[in-house]
C-alpha cells in the first residue's frame, strides 16, 4: 500500500514538472525562441529518466510528454520562425546534456528532417535506431524506441511512399523496423532480471503490460506494402523467428508467436507453414504452444471459409440441393489447391507430433487440444477427406494409449469437443460411425463423460432425423452409446439422479425409432441387434427401452402383411424374415420385461402384439399373446386399480380383433367376463361387466351379435350395481349416488339403437323409473354430477323421440 501511495506521489510530481516545463517551452515557442524551447523541452523530458514508476504509471507520464513533443515538432517544421536549417537543428539537439532527452529531441527533429526530403530516409532511420542503443534501461529504452516507431512509421521508404528517395528501398524500411524490434525485444526480456527475486511475479506482470510496445513493430512490418510473400518468406519471418527462439523467454516467445499469427496475412502463413512450424519445437517447454498452434489453424480455417463465401453463393444459385460432402467439396475448389499444394494438413499434423514429442511434460489436455484444433482445421478445409479426420483421431488414440481413463475435466471437455466436431460438421452420425478410431477415443472417457458424449450423439441423430438403416451401423452405434445402454465396469446405475436417468433412457427410446430399413431381412437383423444390446441394460432400463423396440418392430406391420405369402414353418436362422419370427422375438423381449417386474407395461405390449398378429391373420400367435396377458393378470397384477385398468385394456383389445374362431373367442371372452366379476370393488365389477357386453356385439364383424349375452351382461351389471347400493346403505347409512345405474342406462340406449332385439323400450322405461325412484329415496345421497348426467340422458331420449323417423318410432314407447 505504501509503494502505491509513493508511486502516486512520484507520478504527480513528475506530471507537475512536465506541465511546468511545457508551459515555459510553449511560451518560448510562441516567442520563436529556439534556445529557450530546447532548454525547457530537455528539462521536461528529463522527468522520463525516473526509475521509480511502474510501467503503467510511467506510461501516463510518457503520454504527457508525448503530447507536448507533438507541439514542439510543429515548431521545428517552421524554419521561418526559428531561423535554423533542419540539418543544423539535427546537430544542435545532440548537445542536450542528458542522453534520454537528447534522443527524444533527436527523434523529433529526425522526423522533421525526413519530411523535408533533403536527405535519404534510410540514413536518418539508421542513425536514429543506432543512437537509441545508448539507453539500455528496459522501461526507458522501450518507451524511447516506441516513440521512434511512432514518429517514423508514416515516413518509411515504401512502395508509393513520397519519402522513398533515390537509393532507398523497401528493404531499408524492413531493416529499420526489424532492428528496432530486436533491440526492443532484448530490453523487454532483460526486464525480468531487474530487481530482487522476491518481486519476480510483479516484474512478470509489468512485462506483460509492456508487450504491446514490442508487438507494435510487427504490426508496422505487416503494414509495409512492399513486404511481399517472397520478402516475408526469405527475410522477415526468419529474422523474427530467430529473435523469438533466441530470446529463450516463455512470455516473449508465446506473445511474439501470437503476434506473428495475428498481424501477417493468412496467405503468407499458408505459404510459409514449414518455416513457422519448424520453430515451434524449439520454443521453451513452458510455452503454451497449443494456444499458438490452435490460433494458427483457426486463422487458416477462417481463411479457407472466407474464400468460399462467393463460390458458395454461386453454387446456391445453380443447385437447390446436393449431397452434403459433395457440396462442401465443390465450395472449396477455389482455395483447396493452395492448401493441397503446400500440404498444409501434413505439415500441421507433423508439427503437432514433433511438439508433443519435444514437450515431454505437456499435460494430456494440451495434446488433446492440439488434435481438436487440427480436426477442426481438417473439417473446414478438407471436409471430403474422412481419411484425414480418422488420421487425427488415430493420433489422439495413440497419445491416450497406455493411460487410464481421463479424469481431468478440462481434458474430457476437449475430448467431447473433438468427438462432437465431425457430428456438427456433417450433421450425420452415420459418417462418424465409419471412422474406425472414433469409438477407440470414447473408451478413454470416464463413465459420466461417456454418457454425456453418448447423449450428444443421440441428440445429433434426433435433431437431423438421421436414419440408421443397417445392422452393422446399429451395432457400431450401440457400442458408442453403451454407457447409456448398460452399466460399464459394474458401476451402480442408481447413483445417477432419477431425472437425469429418465432423460437419458427416454433419449435412447427415441433413438430406437430412428432405426429402420425397408428390407425385411435387414430390419429383422436390426431388431435382433437392438434386442441383444438392451437386454443387458438391467431392470431399471428395460421399461424404457423394450416398448420402443416392440413398436419399432410393429412399425413394419404393413411389411409383415406383404410377407404373409412367404411365411412358412421354417424356423432356421437362415429362413427369410417372417411375421412369425418377428412376433417370436417380441414375445421373448416382453417376457424379459415381465420379469423386471413391470407387469402393467408387459400386459399392454402383449395386447399390442396380439392386435398386430390379428391384422396379419395369425390366430395362434394372437391367442398366445392373449394367454400371456391373462397369465400376467392372474399372477403379477394385484393392485385393484391396476386390475381394473388391465381388464378394460383386455376387453377393448379383444373387442377389436376378428382373427379368432368361435372356440378361441369364447374362451377368451369367458375369461374376460370372469375376471370382470371378480374385481375387488363392486363399482369396478359393475363397470367391467357392462363393458364385457361389447364383446358380444361388434358392428364391424358379421356373426358376433349375440343379443342374449349382451342382455345377460347388462342385467348382471344391474345386479352388481344394486348390491353396491345395498352395501353402501348398510355400511354408511346411505346408498350413495346412482351413477352406476345411469351408466348402465346409457349402455342400454347404445345397444337399443344398434338394433339388439333383446334390449327393449320397456327395459329402458323400467330402468329410467328405477333411477328416479333411487334418486328420490331417503337413503340416496344427492350428487350434482349424477343428476346432471341423468338429466342429459333424458334430454337425449327426448331428442330422439322428437327427431322422428325409424329411431323416433323406436323411442316412442318410452315415457319420460
Task: Write out key terms for the chains shown.
about 800 residues
Write up what this structure looks like:
The protein has 816 residues and is mostly helical. Among the domains are: 1-119; 122-259; 265-409; 706-816, Alpha Horseshoe (Serine Threonine Protein Phosphatase 5, Tetratricopeptide repeat). Helices cover 72% and strands 0% of the residues. The chain is built from 42 helices and no strands. The longest helix has 29 residues, at 2-30. The termini are far apart. Residues 310-322 and 567-575 have low confidence and may be disordered.
Task: Summarize the structure in short.
The protein is 72% helix and 0% strand. It is an all-alpha fold and 816 residues long.
What structural category characterises the helix and strand content? mainly alpha
Radius of gyration (CA) equals 45 Å
Percent range for β-strand residues: under 5%
Shape: elongated
Rounded mean pLDDT is 86
- In which range does the helix fraction lie? over 70%
**Uncertain runs:** 310-322, 567-575
- Structure annotation, total helices: 42
Major sheet, described briefly?
A: none
Cα-to-Cα separation, first versus last residue: 101 Å
Strand segment count? 0
List the helices and strands and how they pair.
Blueprint lengths: L1 H29 L3 H12 L9 H23 L1 H4 L3 H7 L6 H18 L4 H11 L6 H15 L17 H21 L9 H24 L5 H19 L2 H14 L2 H6 L1 H7 L9 H19 L1 H10 L5 H8 L4 H6 L2 H15 L5 H18 L4 H15 L8 H18 L2 H5 L4 H5 L4 H17 L7 H10 L1 H4 L12 H15 L7 H15 L7 H13 L2 H6 L16 H16 L4 H17 L3 H17 L4 H17 L5 H16 L4 H11 L14 H26 L6 H15 L7 H16 L7 H20 L1 H7 L5
Helix pairs in contact: 1-2, 1-3, 2-6, 3-6, 5-6, 6-7, 6-8, 7-9, 8-9, 8-10, 9-10, 9-11, 10-12, 11-12, 12-15, 14-19, 15-20, 19-20, 20-21, 20-22, 22-25, 25-28, 26-29, 28-30, 29-30, 30-32, 30-33, 32-33, 33-34, 33-35, 35-36, 35-37, 36-37, 37-38, 37-39, 38-39, 39-40, 39-41, 41-42
